[in-house]
Amino acid sequence: MEKLLERNRSRILGDYFELLRFQSVGADPSRLGDCANCAAWIKNHIEKIPGFKAELFTSPRFPSAPPIVLAERPGEPGSPSMLFYGHYDVQPEDPVEAWETPPFEPVLKGGRVYCRGAQDDKGQWFAFLEGVRALVEEGKKLPTVKIILEGQEESGSTAVSALAGELAPRLRADVLAVCDTHAAADGRPSIVAGLRGVASCTVTLSGPAYDLHSGTHGGLAPNPAQGIAELAASLHDADGRIAVEGFYDEVSAPSAEELEAARADAIGEEAYARETGCRPVGGQAGLGMVERNSFMPTVEVNGIHGGYGGPGAKTVIPASAFMKLSMRLVPDQRAERTMDLLRAHLEKHVPRGMKMEISDVRPGAPGFRLPLSSPVFALARRVLAQIDPRGAGFQWDGASIPVVSVLAKATGAAPLLAGFGREEDHIHSPNESYGLDQFECAMEWGYCLTAALAAESR
User: Fold this and answer.
1) Are residues 126 and 201 both part of a single domain?
2) What is the pLDDT of residue 205?
3) Which among 39, 125, 199, 258 has the fewest CB atoms less than 10 Å away?
């Protein structure tokens, strides 16, 4: 196949760079205007593709939520319809000083585009839709294509999740295509057959009414900074197993077939160490990398804060300290139940003399696994073999895209996740980037999958 990007490289990269310049940090209320401008740009861009009609959807129930972009193009009667999901919000650029280029000014060097959102997820969904656009401009047959792009994925997809039932009649489809994941460790295309769910919260300990002198009050006043460290340490036993009572009761073990397929495409320990700078020794001892990352739940401390952290010394006992926790959940764990179990564990282990508050509770959404025998997977493997002659593998991603489960349930569409990210893209970190070779693959995926669906008959 002729490289799709090279057909109209100047226009495509120009539009891509324009999209990346929007500082659409959806979790930051001060940037709601940037998100709204980005959504308006996307609507106009989609409507330039012949046959598509698009709109910006907002709800009075969520006045502070960025607009949802909805679009549709009627297609070949009798072929499976496709709903395509992506998100235009991005992670905050902090720490800015760690960026080698301006975080919201795309720079092309060494065949890679550096910018916040270059990969996650602006680059992936934009490339996919450019593949669809190429198919339209060739005059080829397409299935009915529906699009939903939101601005809150990085902060929980609150509005889309709550409005999914209301939007369902407009979004019903046969296939839910998502391009927001990674390729296999060896670079081959990879179909995601499962995702972990996610839940999170903030835990705050308070002790004295104000910061105290550590000499005058040391040995008398309870220390929340020390207490929050003790609470964090209580979450796991010495072997790394989650120590929250009942946490594993609902865990659904993988099948032998799933384990074999996951191990076949997994990154090795040495490669992981080279890419991340640390050895893969986290999690429960005695389990392999695949089991720990793809099929077992986790409780992770995302950050601990309390007391003085500036230069030199400040001898205080802080009045309070807090930590951010997140949980990755596997089928058939229920997010609400695991949060209740976590709360009970923390309450049981509150250090003496301190008060605890749990806030910013986000139950998230459950994880899911799809059967390897799914017909949509068979179609995807045929299509991805056109892009890479080595064929496609399967992944059970340790990450989460909670809204996928919500949309699949509301619309009846079979989830089909395939992306072209790599560890070197540094998503969620400074110096995020996306290779033009990856961009080309995502374009081909959009082109070939859409064409294949148009050729299918129900």
Assistant:
1) no
2) 98
3) 258
Please indicate, yes or no, whether residues 148 and 79 belong to a single structural domain of this protein: yes
Q: Are residues 19 and 157 in the same domain?
A: yes
How many distinct structural domains can be found in the chain? Answer: 2
As given in the structure block, the two tokens for residue 308 are 């003085």
17: Cβ contacts below 8 Å, ≥ 6 apart: 106, 113, 115
Query: Of 314, 339, 365, which residue constitutes the final position of a domain?
Result: 365
| Residues spanned by the domain of 245 | 197-256+293-365
**Residues 248-256: what's their mean pLDDT?**
93
Q: Dump pLDDT digits (tens) for 321-375.
A: 999 999 999 989 998 999 999 999 999 999 999 999 999 998 777 788 888 999 9
Q: Are 117 and 30 contained in the same domain?
A: yes
- Mean pLDDT for 186-193 is 92
Q: With respect to residue 297, please indicate whether it lies within any of the assigned structural domains.
A: yes
> For residues 353 and 311, what is the distance between their CA atoms, to the nearest angstrom?
29
Nearest-angstrom CA–CA distance, 153 and 199: 14
Burial (CB < 10 A; 0-12, 13-18, 19+), residue 78, is: exposed
248: left (phi over 0), alpha (psi -120 to 50) or beta: alpha
CA quadruple 5, 10, 11, 12: dihedral, nearest 10 = 40
